[in-house]
UniProtKB/TrEMBL annotation:
Keyword rRNA-binding: no
Pfam families according to UniProt: MFS_1_like (PF12832)
Membrane topology: Multi-pass membrane protein
Subcellular location: Cell inner membrane
UniProtKB keywords: Cell inner membrane, Cell membrane, Membrane, Transmembrane, Transmembrane helix, Transport
Name of the protein described by the UniProt record: MFS transporter, PPP family, 3-phenylpropionic acid transporter
Molecular function as annotated in GO: lactose binding; lactose:proton symporter activity
Organism for this UniProt entry: Marinobacter zhejiangensis
Lineage of the organism: Bacteria, Pseudomonadati, Pseudomonadota, Gammaproteobacteria, Pseudomonadales
Transmembrane residue ranges: 12-30, 42-61, 73-90, 96-115, 135-154, 160-178, 198-220, 240-260, 289-307, 328-346, 358-378
Any single Gene Ontology cellular-component annotation: plasma membrane
Length: 388
């Protein structure tokens, strides 16, 4: 298959997967608020989006590594995830909605770690193009945020599930556009054992850094839209501000290869975390000033874009071919899953007891600890030339 065709096939699922995230993250807390849930209930429900990442990616990553049938597993996750999401339309109460969200996110969260491996394998020796493939996820996120935000200025937020469902169907269709894995055999891990890799202090430091980073994002992913609404921003403005952050991420992904060539992984990680700390302080203290808020959203390029691109390279370098799927799953589960869920839940207590400003100060404190961990333990991964 020609390189151009592979590029577009790989990019397509990223577009729809992150379009779903763009339809959910900025507006789902507003939908839950409209349903009458308390701040702590909203935080708990939003945490379910992350909590299934603790288990699901590890299970699906293990199945992918053992069977070699990652494309089939991605398709299964897409189809069952879409069917499960339909349970939202019966408008269940708190525990019923939690069950629906746990089921659909269990299958939806299986997709990305499997697909990261499919993408890196599909790119072969041209892994530097990963950022340009992955940026289409950011484009999908921006498109969904803009379209849904605009529509919600004309229709009630209770209609949000009807806007999300077509995006889920886009994921299903795009999952069947991935070339089938013909003749795949079970992969056997070679080289260092998984336990040996996880015992490496640099790997422990890497996961702890990302865990704390995602704890710091808990207030952002759970209460940023409510925070903005409290300061008088409209649905369209909220959507545009979310989109600006992801647009900055897109620019970063395009430029990331040049940054890798010029700076060390350690330098990039420390600079990105320092900028993340600045971002949370600005949101906590200066949301009323649009110019400052715009700058804070541009720093999403550091707090997510740079650190995610760097982390994908770390996983590939440390875990190699035999443990690659499990490495991606652990990255997703321990950081986005456990870290994101804990951050969302803790931010719920802070908002319930104080306000959203205090929740973002909590984010800043978590980032400060992440900076210390990174300074103390982060080391570059081994050469990736032979890791597949």
């Amino acid at each position: 298959m020609r390189a151009g065709a592979i590029y577009w096939r790989l990019s397509n699922l990223y577009f729809w997967f992150f379009a779903l995230l763009g339809a959910l993250l900025p507006y789902w807390s507003l939908y839950l608020q409209g349903r009458g849930f308390s701040y702590l209930e909203i935080a708990t429900l939003m945490a379910t989006i992350q909590i299934t990442k603790v288990v699901a990616p590890s299970l699906w990553g293990w199945l992918g590594d053992r069977s070699g049938q990652r494309v089939r597993l991605v398709r299964l996750g897409a189809v069952v995830g879409a069917i499960s999401f339909a349970g939202v339309f019966i408008e269940p109460e708190f525990f019923g909605l939690m069950l629906v969200m746990l089921v659909f996110t269990f299958f939806w969260n299986a997709i990305l770690p499997l697909y990261e491996v499919i993408t890196l394998r599909g790119l072969g020796s041209d892994k530097a193009r990963y950022g340009r493939v992955r940026l289409w996820g950011s484009v999908g996120f921006i498109a969904a945020v803009a379209v849904v935000g605009t529509l919600l200025d004309f229709i009630p937020v209770a209609s949000l599930p009807w806007l999300v469902m077509p995006v889920f169907l886009g994921i299903v269709v795009s999952s069947f556009m991935i070339p089938s894995e013909q003749g795949q055999v079970r992969e056997r891990s070679g080289g260092e054992s998984l336990r040996g890799i996880l015992a490496n202090p640099a790997v422990i430091g890497f996961f702890l850094m990302n865990f704390l980073l995602q704890v710091s994002h808990g207030a952002y992913y759970t209460f940023f839209s409510i925070h903005l609404e409290q300061y008088g921003y409209s649905s369209v403005s909220i959507g545009l501000l979310w989109s600006l952050g992801v647009l900055a991420e897109v620019v970063l992904f395009v430029a990331m290869h040049g940054l890798f060539a010029r700076y060390s992984y350690r330098q990039i990680a420390l600079a990105a975390l320092a900028l993340t700390l600045v971002r949370w302080v600005l949101i906590a203290e200066a949301t009323q000033w649009l110019v400052v808020l715009l700058f804070a959203q541009l720093l999403h390029a550091a707090s997510y874009g740079a650190l995610h691109a760097l982390s994908v390279q770390y996983i590939h370098g440390y875990f190699g071919k035999g443990h690659h799927g499990q490495g991606q799953a652990l990255y997703s589960g321990l950081t986005f899953g456990a870290g994101g869920a804990l951050g969302a839940w803790m931010s719920g207590f802070l908002v319930e007891g104080f306000n959203t400003d205090v929740a973002f100060w909590g984010s800043a404190m978590a980032t400060l600890v992440a900076l210390w961990v990174t300074w103390r333990w982060l080391r570059p991964p081994p050469s990736q030339d032979s890791s597949g």
